[in-house]
Every structure is written in C-alpha cells, then in structure tokens.
C-alpha cells in the first residue's frame, strides 16, 4: 500500500524516519512532498528509495493513505485545492488537533482519521492519540493502529479530551525538557559542577526514571516515598517544589486551552461551521 506524506517539516519528518527505521513502512511505499521541496529531497538523501514528487496533487493521485502534516490553518485551503483528487478509496490522516474528523469528513469523500503524534515516537516510544471518523472502515482502522503500534502506544481519544491529552503526550516532552534544563542551569549556577557533567547526570537520571516506570517497579507516588526519607535532604527540596510549583501546571493548561480555543474558532470560520 502506498503511503503519502504532504509536509516534511519537523513532525512529518519524524513520522517518516520512525516508520522507516521501525520497519513499519518500506522506502518504496512512501511518496512525499513539501512546499519547500528541498526538505523532502533532504530525506531522500538518507532514504534513497523514498519517492519525492513535486506537488500535493501527485501524492494524492499515487497514494492510498495520505498524511497531512501541515499547520492547522493551511489544511482547509489545501483540501480545497485537492478536492477533485480525493476518492472513497483514500484514507486521509490529519495530525493537527484543532481540526476534528467531522470537519474533515464534511469536505472530503474519503475515510478520515486524526492522529496526534509525539516527538517520542522517533524513539519508537510514547503515545499517539487516535480519533477515527464515521466512514473509517475496520480494515483501515486496524491498519493504522498496526502502523502506529510500531512506533508508539496508540490511544483512542474523544474530542472532549483532545487538548489535555495532547498537552500530556505531545507537548509534555517540551514542557519537561524545559524543566530539566532549568534544573541543570541551577545546578551549574549554584555549584562547581560543569554544565557537561550536570547534563550527563540529569540525562542518565531521567532515562533511569523512565525505566523504573516502564518496568512497573514503582509508581510516581511510591518513587517519591522511596527517595524522600523523612527529615532528609530530598524532603527539603520537595518542600520548595510544593511551595513554588503550586498552580504552575494549572496555568500551563489554562494557556494551552485558551490558544486551542482560538485556533478552533479560526478553523471553524474556514470550514464554515
């Protein structure tokens, strides 16, 4: 089955690389394009069997499953441009959260799925968030789930939790990378440790933490209990975090939801909803 990818920016490229390196897709099964064609050609430099074409129209003509990896406000104009090329045999997969499968189904005749990936998928880890349209066949649904199971843990979600699920699974790596960088910077600023050593120790720590959780050796609460000895040093640090972090993530989610609602309103105007 031929798989098309329209848009080879950050997330489009991550999906392409993950699919190929996990063995989920063969190079000769992929047909890709990008508005700036050089980005697609750069991928072909590494994966020579991938087919690069000059236009989105050609991708839709040659592929059965088509990933749209473009910005939310670029999707409706693109769908209008491609309106005469979609057929019932196609499966359109959008990776953008503000656009619902219902909105997509209203403007294309094909099967529709929304999949929200994460940068962690590049390491064949983390979650992908899946919402299927009403026209999506069981065969298509099973194929897509199998495809993403190679690089992630697929999780089916409803529209009402799309934003918070995306905040956790997709935005979470950026949020916690920022916290870890602040953790490293503070260590360097306050002590004689070098940035290189602090970074190495922090990296090993977070990987180790992930392994403990992966193997179900501890839960998050029990991890704190095991490390945080009563009256000990870790407890003093936790006390500071409890004081200073109060309400931080609530505000983070308030802001992401506020932006999400704004994006939804802009999209609704495009789709005439």
Automatic annotation (TrEMBL):
Reactions listed under catalytic activity: L-proline + NAD(+) = (S)-1-pyrroline-5-carboxylate + NADH + 2 H(+); L-proline + NADP(+) = (S)-1-pyrroline-5-carboxylate + NADPH + 2 H(+)
NCBIfam families: PRK07680.1
Localization per Swiss-Prot or TrEMBL: Cytoplasm
Binding site for NADP(+): 6-11
Stated name of the protein: Pyrroline-5-carboxylate reductase
GO CC terms of this entry: cytoplasm
Keywords of this entry: Amino-acid biosynthesis, Cytoplasm, NADP, Oxidoreductase, Proline biosynthesis
The protein's role, per its UniProt record: Catalyzes the reduction of 1-pyrroline-5-carboxylate (PCA) to L-proline.
Family (UniProt): Belongs to the pyrroline-5-carboxylate reductase family.
Gene name of the encoded protein: comER
Recorded metabolic or biological pathway in which this protein acts: Amino-acid biosynthesis; L-proline biosynthesis; L-proline from L-glutamate 5-semialdehyde: step 1/1
Pfam families, per the entry: F420_oxidored, P5CR_dimer
PANTHER family reported in the protein's UniProt record: COME OPERON PROTEIN 4 (PTHR11645:SF51), PYRROLINE-5-CARBOXYLATE REDUCTASE (PTHR11645)
EC number(s) reported in the record: 1.5.1.2
HAMAP family: P5C_reductase
Span of domain Pyrroline-5-carboxylate reductase dimerisation: 163-261
UniProt main location, coarse: cytoplasm
Keyword Nucleus: no
Single GO molecular function: pyrroline-5-carboxylate reductase activity
GO biological process per UniProt: L-proline biosynthetic process
Top-level taxon in the UniProt lineage: Bacteria
Gene3D superfamilies hit by this protein: NAD(P)-binding Rossmann-like Domain, ProC C-terminal domain-like
Organism of derivation: Parageobacillus caldoxylosilyticus NBRC 107762
